[in-house]
């Protein structure tokens, strides 16, 4: 069963290039129209991609309010940057990069604000912790076998690495490129994420 | 439920089962659309400022060229009334060359109108004179502020437009005042 699921997953999302192959025909035309200021075309692109972008943002942020803001920022930024989109990556990957950049920018702002009032030892602790609503004690998570909630309860940096690599299927190098992390650091964060999740879910 | 002994394998299985898409809140697109519209409006407003600045600069440059041409013609005919030169201290050295040239034209216009107004001042009611002088002081203060800001940020098109429009306003005040005052 596990191997069958792995094959399905591999075929679907083991690499984002697979996403591009599933993108609907005619998307290029929509992109061209949106580039020229056609908001209706951009709305169609939004409806094609919003589900994937929201899923990513929700898992990266760990809570829905910030996820919603991130999606909004992502599509507003995409609208303004669309004339510079050259199609070297799929539109999904491009949108994901914008979302990740937006999140990192928010975290840098949080870090600057936090640095003014406190000293911290762990970089992850500086970042915004999941909201009280999103945080679930490991015991409850294990009971619910709720991987989503367990992911939301991960420290932000670790969560980012896990979501981008394990859930979205980006390679180590791609995630390193998006987040600015060294691949060695990324591997360490992935290892930590797996340990925390296995413990939280009592696997 | 847990048929796997390998936790990593089980975690992979659970991760693979996560949905790749999650529907965002339905009102989100409307919020995005409103923000796009607001940003487009800002961009159009900025374009209008730039166009206004360009138009004013062109008008000022044109006035200056006319003045230069008139002076050249006067010199050719050896008409010996030297035009009053603008106060050198007020001619900007910190302004971009084009704007400094435009300011020369504005200064000549304001000085000419001011001379006319001074000649006809006695025919105006004191309250009118006071109102005109107050308006001119406000215009001068606005010009000085715009000029100081431009010297700090010479490439700012909005400030250039503001600078030019303040001179235009001063000229308008002077022109209206001279029209109110009958020729003596």
- What is the number of beta strands of chain B? 0
Shape of chain B: elongated
Shape of chain A: elongated
Give the tally of structural domains of chain B: 1
Taken as a percent bin, the fraction of beta residues of chain A is: under 5%
If helices are DSSP runs of H or I spanning 4 or more residues, what is the number of helices of chain A?
A: 12
Structural class of chain A: mainly alpha
Contiguous runs where pLDDT drops below 50 for at least 5 residues of chain B? 76-92
- Cα(first) to Cα(last) distance of chain B is 107 Å
Q: How many separate structural domains of chain A?
A: 2
**Mean pLDDT metric of chain A:** 78
Class by helix and strand content of chain B? Answer: mainly alpha
CA-atom Rg of chain B in angstroms: 31 Å
Oligomer: heterodimer
Q: DSSP strand (E) fraction of chain B?
A: under 5%
Q: How much helical structure, as a percent, in the residues of chain B? A: over 70%
Distance linking N and C termini of chain A: 16 Å
Radius of gyration of chain A (Å): 18 Å
Largest interface: A-B, 38 and 31 residues
Mean pLDDT value of chain B:
72
Short précis:
The complex is a heterodimer of chains A (203) and B (184). With 203 residues, chain A is an all-alpha fold.
Question: Can you describe what's shown?
Answer:
Chain A has twelve helices and no strands. Chain A is mostly helical. Chain A folds into two domains: 23-128, RNA polymerase sigma factor, region 2, helix turn helix motif (Rna Polymerase Sigma Factor, Chain: A); 131-203, Winged helix-like DNA-binding domain superfamily/Winged helix DNA-binding domain (Arc Repressor Mutant, subunit A), CATH 1.10.10.10. Chain B has one domain (26-180). In chain B, 73% of the residues lie in helices and 0% in strands. Chain B contains five helices and no strands. Chain B has helices at residues 7-16, 28-76, 97-120, 126-152, 157-180. The chains are: A mainly alpha (203), B mainly alpha (184).
């Amino acid at each position: 069963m596990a191997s069958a699921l792995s094959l399905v997953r591999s075929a679907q999302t083991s690499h984002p290039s697979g996403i591009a192959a599933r993108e609907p025909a005619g998307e290029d035309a929509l992109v061209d129209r949106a580039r020229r200021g056609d908001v209706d075309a951009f709305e169609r692109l939004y409806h094609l991609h919003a589900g994937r972008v929201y899923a990513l943002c929700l898992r990266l942020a760990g809570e829905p309010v910030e996820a919603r803001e991130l999606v909004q920022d992502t599509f507003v930024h995409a609208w303004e940057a669309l004339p510079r989109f050259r199609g070297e990556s799929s539109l999904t990957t491009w949108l994901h990069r914008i979302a990740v950049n937006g999140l990192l920018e928010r975290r840098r702002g949080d870090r600057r604000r936090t640095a003014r009032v406190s000293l911290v030892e762990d970089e992850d602790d500086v970042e915004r912790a999941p909201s009280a609503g999103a945080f679930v004690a490991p015991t409850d998570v294990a009971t619910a076998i709720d991987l989503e909630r367990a992911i939301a309860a991960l420290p932000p940096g670790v969560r980012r690495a896990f979501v981008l690599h394990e859930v979205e299927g980006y390679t180590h190098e791609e995630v390193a490129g998006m987040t600015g992390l060294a691949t060695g650091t990324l591997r360490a964060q992935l290892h930590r994420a797996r340990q925390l999740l296995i413990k939280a879910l009592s696997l | 439920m847990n048929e796997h002994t390998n936790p990593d394998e089980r975690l992979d299985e659970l991760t693979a089962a996560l949905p790749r898409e999650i529907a965002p809140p339905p009102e989100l697109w409307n919020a995005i659309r409103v923000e796009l519209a607001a940003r487009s409006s800002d961009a159009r407003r900025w374009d209008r400022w730039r166009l206004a600045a360009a138009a004013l600069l062109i008008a000022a440059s044109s006035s200056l060229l006319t003045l230069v041409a008139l002076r050249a013609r006067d010199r050719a005919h050896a008409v010996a009334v030297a035009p009053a030169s603008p106060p050198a201290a007020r001619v900007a050295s910190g302004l971009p060359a084009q704007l400094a040239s435009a300011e020369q034209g504005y200064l000549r216009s304001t000085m000419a109108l001011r001379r006319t107004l001074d000649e006809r001042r006695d025919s105006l009611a004191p309250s009118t004179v006071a109102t005109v002088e107050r308006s001119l002081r406000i215009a001068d203060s606005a010009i000085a502020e715009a000029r100081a800001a431009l010297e700090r940020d010479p490439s700012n098109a909005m400030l250039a437009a503001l600078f030019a429009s303040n001179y235009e306003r001063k000229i308008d005040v002077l022109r209206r005042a001279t029209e109110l005052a009958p020729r003596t």
